[in-house]
Amino acid sequence: MRIARLDRRVVFPGLAALLVLAWAVHEDADTQRTLLGCVLGWSLLALAWIDWTTFRLPDALTLPLLCIGVAVAWLDSPATFQSSLLGAAAGYGAFFAVRVFYQMARGREGIGRGDAKLLAAGGAWLGWQALPWVVLLAALLGLLLALFHHARGIRLTAETALPFGPSLAFAIWLIWIYGVPVE
């Protein structure tokens, strides 16, 4: 009997989805929060994978993720809802501004609207207070990604495109699981 060879494009995301589930269960005993963490984590995983392979963050995933974050906040409390709305607006606005200024300065696109929508979704789930930490962590993860490419012998130049969605998604996930550092 011949065993079919497993396709890494199927196996890797499947194992990553199981890891998200195990991580969410391990870090939070609250069943409701664990389920929400799985929804968030699996959505972020799909978005990271899509951006990694296509340099795209589809509206079909980012916008529902944003809406779910706002809905969860609305069900929680008025203060959480307000923080969620501010987080969504600030997340989108900040990255959209970076996009516009970068395009004016360099004459080309540097960050996509999908990244702005993903940060808006992160702001909806985490609140506006978490956004600076998400951006800082995502930037550090992006630098690690660049170093990884460099270590593999990939020449990086000012023209090299790297997807930011995976770093942003992982940063949102880490802040969801562990919260922001205390002052």
The shape, in one word, is globular
Average pLDDT confidence is: 89
| Helix and strand sequence | HHHHHHH
Quaternary structure classification: single chain
Whole-Å distance between the termini? 61 Å
Question: What are the low-pLDDT stretches, counting only 5+ consecutive residues below 50?
Answer: none
**H/I helix tally:** 7
Number of strands: 0
Total separate domains: 1
- Rg for CA atoms: 17 Å
Which sheet architecture does the biggest sheet show?
A: none
Would you tell me the structural class of the helices and strands?
mainly alpha
Strand content: under 5%
**Helicity level:** over 70%
Account of the protein in words:
This protein is mainly alpha-helical and 183 residues long. It has one domain (8-178). It contains 7 helices and no strands. The chain starts with 7 loop residues before the first helix and ends in a 5-residue tail after the last helix.
